[in-house]
Structure formats: C-alpha cells, structure tokens
Amino acid sequence: MGNSTSSQSWLEVYEEIFRRYYSRADLLLPNDFYVREIALQTLYGENYIRHLSFSTISELRRAITERIPRHLFYSSAKYREPANTSMDEKQWMGSDLVFDIDANDVEECTLERGVTTFRFCKICGYTASENIKQCPKCGSLLLKFEHVDNRCIRKALLYLDKLIDVVLSDLNFNVLKASFSGHRGFHLIVELDQPFDKMNQETRRAIVSYIKLDESAATYIKTHLLKLDKGRAVPLPPKISDGGIRRRIAKELQSMPIDEVVRKYVAGQLSKLSFSDALRMYKVLETHIDDVIKRVSIPIDPKVTIDTTHLVRVPNSINGKTGWIAYNIKKLDISEFSMDHSLLSPEEGVKLKIRIDIDLPRLEIIDTTFSFTRGEEAVLDYVYASYLVFKGVATLTDVKS
Ligand SMILES: [Zn+2]
Is the pLDDT of residue 3 over 70? Predict the structure, then answer.
C-alpha cells in the first residue's frame, strides 16, 4: 500500500516525515538558547535563513514544523541581540567551545581506503574518478559523491572518547554534550560560563594545538621523552598519574599490545624497577613513539574550535545530507552509540522505494553493503534509502509504510 510519488515530489514525502519528527523531537539546546542565533536551511530552499531567535522551545518547534529545516543550527555564541542581522550589532557575550571530528580526517581511515569519492552526472549517469567539473557526455555540471565506511566512523568515535577525556581531565570543563553529526563525524559542545566563554581565538587556538598536536609539538614531545643525557639515568615512560600530555601518552601505551612491564609501569603497578627493565622500557618507547603520538593526536577541525561565531548543528535534529538523526550520545558514553537504524531514523518501520540514478561502487552503508547499477529499483529501510536520495544518487519513487 504505497502512496505514489508521481503526483508528489520526493521532498513532500520527507517534509511529512520531518514534520512528524520535529513535532516531538527532543532537540538538545543550551538552557540559554534565547541568547543564541538560530539558523536553518529549509528542505526546499538553497539559502540559509539566519538571525532567528526564539524565547521558548515551543516557539522554535512551531517555526520548524511550519518551515521544515534540512539543516538546523544554533550559534555557539551568546548575543545580547541574537536576531540582529548585523554581526557587529548582535553584541557578543561569549561563546561555547566546539569540537568537530570528521571521519575523513582520521588518517588510518584514508590510508585504509575507507573513503570513496567520485564525481557523477545526475542527468546521464556518467561517473568519473578524476576531478572534472563538466560531464563529457552531456555537458551538465558534475556533482561530488563522498562516502565514508562505517569502520572509519567507528575510528572517529574512538577519538571522540579521547577528546572527552582530555576536555574533562585536562581542561577541567564539565558541561559537555557529545553527538553524532548525522553524517560522518562527531561533535563535542562544551558549554562555558564566565570568564571562560570570553576566550579569544588565540586561546582557542592554543587548545586546538594541545589536543591535535601539530608536527612541531609532536617533534618536541618526542625529543623530550627520548632525550638521553650523558651520565644520567635512562628516561622512563610517562605514567598515567602524570598530568597533561604525559598522562595521554601513558594511557595510549597502556592500551597498546606492547611489553607487559611497560604497561604495568605506566599504570603505576610496578613496585621494583631494575636497570634492565628501565632499558627495555626505553627501547619500547623509542620503537612505538611515533605510533603513540599519532594515537594521542586527536584529528579535530581547527577552524570549528577557533571560530567564536560557529553555528552548531542541533543535537537530535535531522542532517539533510543523509536524512539521519544527529544523535545525542547520552552521558558521554560512546558505547551508547552505534550506527544503528533505530538511532538514526526519525521514524520506525518506514520503507522507501528508490530508483538508482548512477552505477554505484560497493558501498557499506551503516551495517549493510550495497552495490547498485543505474536504473535499478529497490525498497529499502528509511536510513539506507534516504542516504542515497540525499546524496543525490537515487530518486525516491514510492513510500511503503
Ligand atoms: Zn551527463
């Protein structure tokens, strides 16, 4: 029993699904959301509608169930006049600290070919792996398709866990909200009070450098940890009970499948230490230092964290790049999240019929691998079908619910 979409555009189908979702969605906004700018892109429009502000959640809910957003954001900044269209006249009062980890930026992911990228022509189905702008067959503008495997998202999630640990333990901020972006990454929002919310870009840049460890920081740490001075004892690895970077390094050493003595030492479980143990540990540290530093460097997007006027995707809103929910991870517990259709779908049990518009390579979407050819039709669960539709490589033809 399906409603044919021939008379109804595919966007109208999504409009209904999104509206039902937004009428009851548990949108996670800061308590002081009335001093935040709300911005959205509608399902139909290309442009962003900015400088909105609402004094109650129900006002916001009314607005977004009337004009359905494809993307919904709020400002990390707090303003005296959030709805003022002039950034200068908004009167900035301070900003939260925002982190963004994109699976695309996880080095192991790109090395292991976890990212699929190509260009395609929506009109004639032409696909190209090289970076060309125009379709050589029909002259249309080519669109870009980018897909990240589930295992890369897993890796990004593990970095989110490390990031949460650093923010809690080293920066000592404790009002944190973690969420899936609804696409291929994770967000961590750190709500700040005075005086920390007044941190300027310079200070935020220093935080980025501490978390991300650029090359010069990495070289410095490496040299420092491995420095052999004549006539002095062999340097020992850092311990978990140390602070800062040393603690981060010790934690990585402990989690790695390396020498048992090292793992005991960093955890503070080694009561006696012989010279040969010390020497052995030094060798282990020397062997693994590059790998350890790589694991300690959290691939956050510097631009996002430095920006004091960043627009944050509302946790639990729908991401219009995929149709998935930007799922809020409860209690900062990463085991609470998995790429599961029950967490990502705004509505249970919806099946969509789609027609594939181009020849697709094998794609692992969430937990299932698909390989489709142009013209093929399929009835899929909401999450899979919507992913392909919003990515522009499939057309919605029918709803089965
Ligand atoms: Zn073409």
Answer: no
